[in-house]
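note to self — DONT lose this again. spent like an hour looking for the file last time. sequence + predicted structure for the chain T wanted, 335 res
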Amino acid sequence: MLDSFDDFSLASGLGGLVLLRLEESLRSPSIENCQILSVELEKLLRNPRKDLSLFYGEGADLWLLNKYLQHIPSSTLATELLVRYQKWKVRSRQLLTLPGRSELIRGAVGFGVLGRSMKDDEFLEEILTYFETQSPHFFRLEDTGDVSSDSGTLSRVTDLGLAHGISGILAFLVSYEGSPEEERARRLSEVIFTTLAREAEAKKLLPKFTPDGENSWHQGWCYGNLSTAYALKLAGSVWETKKYTVLADSLWEAGLNFHEVNLREIPDHLCHGKASLNLLSALMDSLQKFPMNQDRTKKEGGFLNGEIGVRLALLRDGRFSLSRWEDLLLLGRSL
C-alpha cells in the first residue's frame, strides 16, 4: 500500500511517505534508510504542482524539504529550498488578497506554518494582516478544489475547527508571542475566544459551524471539543489568560465524556481518530488513553486518514517524535 500513490500530497500521497521515511531514518540511521528517504524526496521534488497549500500542494514539499535539511544538511538542496520558497511566496501573496482563505489545510494558517519554519518574519506579518481583514467572522470559501483556484462560494458560516477554522487560527496566533506583532495577535485571539465561548455556552459539544451548526461527532484533531480545548489551553498557558484555560478544561471534559460512549466507532487515523487523540491527550497532561486497533485502520496510505499517520503515531514515544512531524498538526507551537 505504501509503495504507490495517486498523488504527491502530504495529506494523502507521497509527501506523507517522505515524512515517515524521515522519521524512520532518524530512529534507525543506516545507509539503506537514508537512500530510501533520498529517493522518495527526489521523486517528490521533481513533480511540482499548482496547488500552494501546506497539506495538498507545494507548501508541503517546501516544509518537508526544510524539515529534511534540519537533520541532513545539503548545500545544494538548501539553495533549491530558498529559490523555490521565494517563488512560492510570490504566488501565495496573490491568494492573500482573496476572502475566505484563513484555514490551516488550504489557506493562510498553513502558509504561516511554512513561513514560521522558514523564520520569515516579514511574511508572518503579512499573514497576520490577512487575518485582521477576515475578522471577526472568518467566513470560509467552500468547494475551492485547490489553493491555486479562485473559484468557490464564500459561505456565511464560521468554521470552529482546528483544521479548517478559527481554533486553528487561535493556535497559530500564539506563535507570535514575543514578536512585535504579539499585541495584534492577542486582540484577534480575543475575537476568536468570544465566538468559541458563546458556542460552548449554547452546546456542550461544539458544532462544526456557527451559526446553525449541528453537534459534531468529529471529536478529534480536525474538529470538535478536544482540539479546540488544546488551542485554548495553549493560548491560555502562553499568555497567562485564565478564562482561556477554564473554557479549555470544560470543553476537554465534555469531549472525553462523548468518547466514553462512542469509542468503538472511532478509527485509528490522525485526522479525527485515536492517533491524534492520544497526541492531544499527552499534551494536555491527561491520563486518558485511546487504544488503537491497527486491524481496523482504513486501508489507505495517507498521512491524515491512513496508514502513514498511524505508523508515525505508533513510532512516537513521549510527547514528540524525532522529526517533530507533530508541528504540522500543532501549528508550530505546543504546550
